[in-house]
Specification:
Elements (H helix, E strand, L loop, with lengths): L1 H49 L4 H41 L5 H39 L2 H7 L4 H39 L4 H11 L2 H27 L5 H33 L6
Protein name: ABC transporter permease
Organism: Gordonia aquimaris
InterPro entries: Permease_MalE
Length: 279
């Protein structure tokens, strides 16, 4: 019996360790991410009341995010508008309802393509840069030195990055909407045989300010999620450069999955309370 228990002990220990790392580990990480987001929001509100927001750091980070995402946003917006126009245009032409092409393409770009593209761009370029920066500071023990000197890393580093991402994401969404709708308009007029006036009339009949507000709110939420995930992965980096690289990779994957899931929930809630109607 003693030998049997001893022979099973390594297997049980390996199973327990594997279960703790692979099954419970992500749950604990999710809990720490939620905790960091709540602490960051409370710290942001407290700094706003006290007038101690790190505006300079937020502006510098916002400018960096704009610089690394503006050109990719332009290059992504054009294919979004073109693909939507081609796919929907073929169906609409078969139904003989070419005048609705503006409504369909504009509706898809505003509500879905723009905030998702802005979030994916920030997750791929912005959040990875945030994770790399904070991860490098963590492995160099700069974060521990800040805590030793009485400087709160959340107030000094996390909050400005959350503010920057929350501001830049809606701006990117607006930019993508403009470029995507113009690209869809050009393709619809030149290749689909839709009149310019008919396109804009159907666009204005279905698209509304509420849809644009939804896109900006979604993009802002995505920005906050991306920044929090990037900061959390960066602050928890360990193991030298390899740990920083792992944190950056995890940031991109987790932020993309989180954006898609949150987008689904927000879209579902919005369509329930605000169904599509002609303006």
């Amino acid at each position: 019996m003693t030998l049997s228990r001893a022979s099973r002990s390594p297997a049980l220990d390996a199973f327990s360790a594997n279960f703790s790392d692979n099954a419970l580990g992500p749950v604990r990480t999710l809990g720490r991410t939620f905790r960091l987001s709540i602490v960051a929001m409370l710290q942001m509100a407290l700094d706003l009341v006290r007038g101690q927001l790190k505006v300079r750091e937020a502006v510098v980070m916002a400018w960096y995010l704009v610089s690394v995402t503006a050109l990719p946003a332009f290059l992504m917006a054009i294919p979004f508008g073109v693909i939507v126009t081609i796919q929907i245009g073929n169906i609409i032409n078969q139904l003989g309802a070419q005048s609705l092409l503006g409504a369909a393409s504009g509706f898809a770009v505003i509500q879905q393509a723009a905030p998702l593209a802005a979030g994916i761009l920030l997750g791929g370029a912005g959040a990875s840069a945030i994770a790399a920066d904070l991860g490098a500071r963590t492995v160099r023990e700069e974060i521990d030195a800040m805590r030793t000197m009485g400087v709160d890393p959340i107030q000094r580093l996390v909050v400005p990055r959350v503010i920057a991402a929350a501001v830049v994401a809606p701006l990117l969404a607006i930019f993508i909407v403009v470029v995507g709708v113009l690209a869809a308009f050009y393709l619809a007029v030149t290749m689909q045989g839709v009149g310019p006036g008919s396109y804009w009339q159907s666009f204005g009949s279905f698209a509304s300010q509420r849809d644009m507000l939804l896109a900006m709110v979604k993009a802002s939420i995505f920005g906050v999620i991306i920044a929090v995930i990037g900061c959390q992965r960066g602050l928890e980096a360990k193991g030298g450069p390899r740990g920083v690289a792992d944190g950056v990779n995890a940031t991109v994957v987790v932020s993309t999955v989180a954006i898609i899931g949150v987008n689904f929930v927000i879209t579902l809630i919005y369509t329930v309370f605000f169904p599509l109607q002609i303006g």
